[in-house]
Amino acid sequence: MDLKGILSIGGYGGLFKLIKQTKTGFIVESLTDQKRMQAFATSKISTLEDIAIYTEEGEVHLKDVFKKIFEKEDGKQTINHKVSSEELKSFFIEVLPDYDSERVYVSDIKKVVNWYNVLVDLNMVDLEEDEESTQEDAVKEESEKTEEKEGKVQKTEKKTEKKKEKKKEKKKDQE
């Protein structure tokens, strides 16, 4: 499941796909009716990939919540986001039992349920890990390790050079 280019824009219902970045914002396309519009940089824009749900012990990425709903519903749509608050809360407790009920509001649960249903309609929810993101994470981790090693080597080389300079200065002072 890849949520990278999927956006939620404050003030607009539904989800959008990022088409292009412009000087003043973004060109986006609605996932439901494929209409394009401009989203300005001043709009509250969030990628679904960056959204997480608060739990008692931390946070759970939205992707993982979608996977849990997908497993619970066998890949089908879930309850309507317009049902009562109590039904939404009880549903969310089934999906994510340790969610933080003080920081996760009913409006947040409505959004999650609505987004999930939209993505299921478009066959964009699955249980498979993103091979690209897994590979990217591995490459990124490896490059970070390499950079860290290179940084340590450079620090060691600088220390060695400083020691040599100090020895030369001492010899000059002694002469």
Core attributes:
single chain, 175 residues, alpha+beta, SH3 type barrels, Arc Repressor Mutant, subunit A, 47% helix, elongated
CATH topology of the domain at 52-121: Arc Repressor Mutant, subunit A
Strands, total number = 7
Could you tell me the strand content as a percent range? 15-25%
Termini separation (Å)?
Answer: 72 Å
| Apparent shape | elongated
Number of helices: 4
Largest sheet: 5 strands, antiparallel
Under the CATH scheme, the architecture of the domain at 52-121 is: Orthogonal Bundle
Low-confidence segments, given as residue ranges, are none
Q: Order of helices and strands, N to C?
A: EEEEEEEHHHH
Please bin the fraction of helical residues. Answer: 40-55%
The CATH class name of the domain at 52-121 reads Mainly Alpha
Q: Give the rounded overall mean pLDDT.
A: 83
Task: State the secondary-structure class.
Answer: alpha+beta
Biggest sheet: strand arrangement:
4-3-2-1-5
The Rg value, from CA coordinates, equals: 25 Å
